[in-house]
Amino acid sequence: MKKAVIMAGGFGTRLRPLTMNVPKPMVPILNTPMMEHIVNLLKKHKITDIVSVLYFQPETITEYFENGARFGVDMKYEMAKADYGTAGAVKNAEQHLKEPFIIISGDVLTDFDLSEAIAFHKEKKSLATILLTRVSNPLQFGIVMADEEGRIIRFLEKPSWGQVFSDTINTGIYILEPEVLDLIPQKTEFDFSKDLYPLMLSKKLPLFGYIAEGYWRDIGNLNEYQKGQFDAVAEKVQLEVKGVKKDNVTIGNNSKVAPTAKLSGNVIIGDDTIIEDYVEITDSVISDNVRIGNGSKIKRSTIWNDVMIGDFAELSDDVICSHCKIGNSATIFENVFISDFCEIGENANLLPNIKLWPKKRVHSGATLSRSLVQEEKWVGELFTDARISGASNIEIQPEFGAKLGAAIGMVFKPNSYFLTSRDPDTLSRLLKRTITSGLASVGINVNDLQIVSIPQTRQEIRTGKYAGGIHIRRSPRNPNMTDIIIFNSEGRDIGTAVTKSIERYFYGEDIRRVHYEDVGEIRYPERSNEIYLDRFLDSLDREAIRQREFKVLMDYSYGLASNIYPRILGKLGVDALSLHDYVDAYKYKSAINHQLQEGEEAVKIMRSLGYELGFILEPGAEKISVVDERGVLYAPARLLAIVTKLFLETNRDKEPYRIGVSIVASSAIEEIAKDYNVEIFRVQDSHSAMMEATRVDSDKELKVPFVGGVWGGFIFSDFLFASDGMYSVGKILEMLALTNYTVSELDEKLPRRFQHISEAYCPWESKGTVMRKAMEHSAEFKRELIEGVKIFFDDSSVLLLPDKEKAAFKIFAESNQFESAVIIARKYNSLITQWKDE
Q: Are 152 and 200 in contact (CB under 8 A)?
């Protein structure tokens, strides 16, 4: 095999500010661009016919490598005209790929034995072979599961911890036969891991994984760059180094090191560099044409070319890009990243964890405590799914909001309409205004609903007037954080392609402000409550609810539902005693922090009043809790069983359908469903997974009218594809009226399964290993691999689920007897403790 494709089109946004002026593949490791190390690796294995696929700043790469002759290879280039995904980009180079070829990224650091991988590919007669490796934290990579022969059986692209069924990951290095390209559509966004390989699996085409030995690191962010650089310095990865090595120091041509200079550890020095008297350098990489003045101290740092460092300066664990000047006696503390053409004055102090964008200047004697850019946190990915979260008024602040609004607006057509809403929080109000300003500045019109819930916002977007929407809230997961959630034109969460586009505009400098006459308008719709109210009432059997004459307690938690829900209950004929039924920004914050206490208050009131039912709407109005007439506050898992029974009973005579429930839910759900013509399927324990479960892509698929979670969220998809706590209350009242049940009767009647939920400590770096051990252990049992590893026994089960936020595994043990569940939980606690150390 002589042919290779180097993927060299990445933007390198997570490596900023290092990639402000160079594309990611040209960032240096040991004074050599990463892509050149890849070319050297290919040449070592006699692969010399190379096609480089370019997209971002292509001229930097073409000017450096030219036709490849001076590197001993033949280099051709293919310019991507649009972002067609990884496989789509290779498809564009199809005319060069008429024989087997290897695909490798231009921005990874590796010394894999490619010849061994190619031999494996030929031996297995594979159409596509993926090079795999084992890592301690597989979350940011695609997990690949293969059988004993190496045949791939499953893919998971950037999984959650609950989907980490192995610590074997996709390295992004592929060996392909040319006929595989026939499966890739022309000029269409198509990805290897998300699209091509799942397609090959569905067609049962030969697809194998080869576990490669050696070093591999994805240089995806600044932390990984630092690690990769110093792994290379320590010779943990075998790379070609320019210069002459003596002891642990490698020095390039025409460089001069003063006799009094002290070089310790492993030090790499490029060409034409001057190290003056009494300089101390430890474990560092110094590039070409650098001058380091008398008495300066450089520790574990990377200095790019054409940098001037004055006398008695001190640097520790830093990266200084090209053409910078560091003044005399300047001190640069740990983890400072300085882009090109910056100037640091004499006696200046740069405190830890600072980033400077290009051409920034720090005056003499100044102390800099924060980055000279607005988006210091956001050198990584902005989004988690469709949500941006950050520390309130620190990471997410007004300047951030204005820039984000403009970046969002750039993705949509000028003169489009966007919908905005927020919770009562004071910072949410401020941020909504700045985001709205950013949208308007690029020609997007804004309709502002002001204080309404996420479900109501989704419903308003579904009217068809809007290109998308935004909701800003205090995070329910952490009250010191703010969430910004973005919706598409259907009211659903935006997808990955849109989030990537927003990130590119946010990090880039190409936001185009419109002419002042084309600035977007900001309006305040007058009938949004009526639209929601009418749709809400039309979707329920109002007469049945009225005839039941419910008396209920309704706790609004000072939240968003209090503006509209009392009117809805009145029209349903419900006699409701309201608690905390007004919006109060301060008390809203308190309600987020103290929802358990509010549940206890509702229990006391229910016991004294004897009302039939009590509901607690969480502040954001997406989830509910329920208290019955006895004052019993139902655990969310038990409430799910009750609501599922009600839904099945009221839909007994409907055409066949499916319902989804969380993987964490009790197996009592399946027992309840036995008497009904319905299919139960399990989903991951997240709201995004619940929403995705409602999506039906063809008429042949059964509808999914109900999806239930174990945290008080329910989706009734005929009304909305997302959880709406207000509608959940209305639907429960309707179902109780139609069946003539009470909640307490159902609680007494329905089967019980006993769950014991516990935690086992597991370091983050051991989670992948524990999941692999759990997979090996469970191979002989019936199991589910939806999220975590769920193992079934005769009359019991256990779910091992990596915690998303802590160094721990959650253990959900279930049995007919509580004592049995406890025994199972203890057993697997011990096993996890054992596995994490293996």
A: no
